[in-house]
């Protein structure tokens, strides 16, 4: 008989069809193995304690980006966070801030994805395509490190006070993705993208608060991308 | 400029959104048990705002006061504590503002760099405030 | 279907304000430091027009542009924003006129 440790999960609950007001519900979650992930705790709640709890998860290994959550006031992926790393027994789990809540921990990421699409996150070619593949030197490829790894979990944008304040603000994620294509040696779409970013709801709205950098589960740096875009805009004289 | 949301939610979702008490606009009133953690950058930003408001009001009232339209203001800022507050606000705002400029025109956007830079800002603020405060009290 | 929003960068993009906010900020650091630290003593340097001129001009801009940024963040209603922005303009112009009066009176 093992003496297992318990932690409390205080989870945001809201079902618009039943509840008038959101509320927080507390669950006791058993730590069943060292290094237990937050997602395992949530699954325990869902499977054993309360099947009405809703949350997103899919690949459970930090690739799909479905399970961005606000845990103890910081945005993170539940599948990449060990409960013991949080350093507390009382864990408050809220949906990502700055997004509409559909139910419980499920947020509406529609606006987020639309902003992502807005910056044209794909290669734009104007010159005719070569016979074989596009050539890219290893040095040029290196520039994309720290930009292409984004999994679109929404942790960065929803951690940003500017994003909370301004409904139309594109958000750190859109800038990171735009910059990934702007500095790609194969891409020729800078003229298409930069006017979109040069907007009062665009890069100039960033107050360099770094919440996005702190929140990113992939250790990417959207602030650096924003700085890069600003430099591009200044150099090109927009 | 953004045009209205062109994307139409599917029918089921649309009904749900109408019932939802928390549209995107009312985010501020969203009931939070734990507010977002104040990381270094966010602390720096909040302090920058607060000190900025203090300095801005001070500058405007200072001009009005010197022009003879707000005599009470001269009396208010005559005491040492008010002066110290303005001094701290200015010194912090200056150094942190310089740090913000460095973010864009140097490599201040690196994660390791900016937290160190913020510590330097805090240290410099303390040191320069003390240096500036000595003549105020002597 | 995801279509994306329509953004089209325009004259009101904020680039100019952003740049001027930084330039004026750096100049203000120098000018205010001179003004403040010289006023503690004799105030000889702090009242020269080469110090006071940029201090007032850039200071008023930097202040009100900063206030505008804060308003944009916390005031949701477009109408209120416009009203507050108008107030900033009135305050700014008044302060500039008074500043001219102060400088010329010295």
Write a brief structural summary.
The complex is a heterotrimer of chains A (238), B (138) and C (106). With 238 residues, chain A is of the alpha+beta class.
Please, could you describe this protein's structure?
The complex is a heterotrimer of chains A (238), B (138) and C (106). Chain A is α+β, with helices and mostly antiparallel strands. Chain A is built from 8 helices and 7 strands, in the order E-E-H-E-E-E-E-E-H-H-H-H-H-H-H. Chain A has 2 domains: 6-107, Beta-grasp domain (Ubiquitin-like (UB roll), Roll), CATH 3.10.20; 110-235, Alpha-helical ferredoxin (Fumarate Reductase Iron-sulfur Protein, Chain B, domain 2). In chain A, a hairpin with a 2-residue loop joins strand 6 and strand 7. Chain A is elongated and about 65 Å long. Chain A starts with 5 loop residues before the first strand and ends with a helix. The mean pLDDT of chain A is 89. With 138 residues, chain B is mainly alpha-helical. Chain B has one domain: 3 helical TM bundles of succinate and fumarate reductases. The longest helix of chain B is centred in the middle third of the chain and has 27 residues, at 40-66. Chain B starts with 10 loop residues before the first helix and ends with a helix. Chain C has a single domain (15-105), classed as Up-down Bundle (3 helical TM bundles of succinate and fumarate reductases). Chain C is 75% helix and 0% strand. Chain C has helices at residues 15-40, 49-74, 78-105. The radius of gyration of chain C is 18 Å and the shape is elongated. The mean pLDDT of chain C is 85. Classes of the chains: A alpha+beta (238), B mainly alpha (138), C mainly alpha (106).
Helix-strand string of chain C: HHH
Mean pLDDT of chain C equals 85
* CATH class descriptor of chain C: Mainly Alpha
Largest sheet of chain C: none
Oligomer: heterotrimer
| Helix percentage of chain C | over 70%
List keywords for this structure.
heterotrimer; B: 138 residues; mainly alpha; globular; disordered N terminus; C: mainly alpha; 3 helical TM bundles of succinate and fumarate reductases; Succinate dehydrogenase (chain C); transmembrane (chain C)
Question: What is the topological layout?
Answer:
The complex is a heterotrimer of chains A (about 240), B (about 140) and C (about 110).
Chain A: E1 6-13, E2 23-30, H1 38-49, E3 68-71, E4 74-77, E5 90-94, E6 101-103, E7 106-107, H2 110-118, H3 138-142, H4 161-165, H5 172-182, H6 190-197, H7 211-215, H8 222-235
Parallel strand pairs in A: 1-5
Antiparallel strand pairs in A: 1-2, 3-4, 3-5, 6-7
Helix pairs in contact in A: 2-5, 5-8
Chain B: H1 11-19, H2 40-66, H3 71-76, H4 80-105, H5 111-137
Chain C: H1 15-40, H2 49-74, H3 78-105
Helix pairs in contact in C: 1-2, 2-3
């Amino acid at each position: 008989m093992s003496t297992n440790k318990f932690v409390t999960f205080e989870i945001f609950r809201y079902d618009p069809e039943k509840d008038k007001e959101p509320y927080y519900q507390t669950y006791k979650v058993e730590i069943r193995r060292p290094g237990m992930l937050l997602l395992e705790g949530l699954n325990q709640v869902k499977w054993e304690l309360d099947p009405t709890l809703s949350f997103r998860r899919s690949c459970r290994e930090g690739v799909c980006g479905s399970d961005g959550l606000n845990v103890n006031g910081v945005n993170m992926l539940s599948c990449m966070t060990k409960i013991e790393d949080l350093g507390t027994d009382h864990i408050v789990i809220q949906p990502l801030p700055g997004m509409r809540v559909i139910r419980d921990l499920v947020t509406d990421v529609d606006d987020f994805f639309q902003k992502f699409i807005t910056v044209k996150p794909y290669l734009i070619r104007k010159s005719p395509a070569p016979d074989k593949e596009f050539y890219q030197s290893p040095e040029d490829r290196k520039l994309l490190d720290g930009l292409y790894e984004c999994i679109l979990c929404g942790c960065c944008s929803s951690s940003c006070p500017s994003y909370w304040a301004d409904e139309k603000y594109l958000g750190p994620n859109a800038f990171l993705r735009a910059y990934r294509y702007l500095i790609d040696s194969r891409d020729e779409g800078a003229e298409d993208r930069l006017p979109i970013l040069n907007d009062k709801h665009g890069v100039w709205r960033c107050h360099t608060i770094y919440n996005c950098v702190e929140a990113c589960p992939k250790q990417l740096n959207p602030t650096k991308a924003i700085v890069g875009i600003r430099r591009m805009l200044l150099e090109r004289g927009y | 400029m953004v045009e209205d949301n062109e994307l139409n939610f599917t029918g089921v979702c649309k009904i749900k959104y109408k019932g939802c008490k928390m549209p995107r606009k009312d985010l501020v009133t969203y009931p939070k048990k734990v507010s977002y953690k104040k990381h270094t950058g966010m602390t720096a930003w909040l302090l920058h705002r607060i000190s900025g408001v203090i300095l801005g009001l001070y500058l405007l009232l200072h001009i009005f006061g010197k022009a003879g339209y707000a005599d009470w203001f001269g009396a208010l800022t005559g005491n040492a504590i008010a002066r110290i507050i303005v001094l701290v606000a200015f010194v912090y705002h200056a150094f942190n503002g310089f740090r913000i400029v460095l973010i864009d025109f140097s490599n201040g956007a690196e994660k390791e760099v900016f937290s160190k830079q913020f510590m330097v800002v805090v240290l410099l603020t303390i040191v320069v405030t003390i240096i500036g405060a000595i003549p105020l009290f002597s | 279907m995801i279509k994306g929003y329509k953004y089209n960068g325009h004259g009101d993009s904020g680039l100019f304000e952003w740049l001027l906010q930084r330039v004026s900020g750096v100049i203000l650091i120098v000018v205010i430091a001179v003004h403040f630290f010289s006023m503690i003593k004799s105030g000889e340097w702090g009242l020269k027009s080469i110090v006071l001129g940029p201090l007032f001009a850039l200071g008023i801009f930097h202040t009100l542009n900063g206030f505008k940024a804060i308003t944009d963040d916390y005031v949701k209603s477009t109408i209120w924003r416009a009203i507050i922005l108008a107030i900033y303009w009135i305050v700014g112009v008044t302060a500039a006129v008074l500043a001219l009066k102060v400088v010329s009176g010295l």
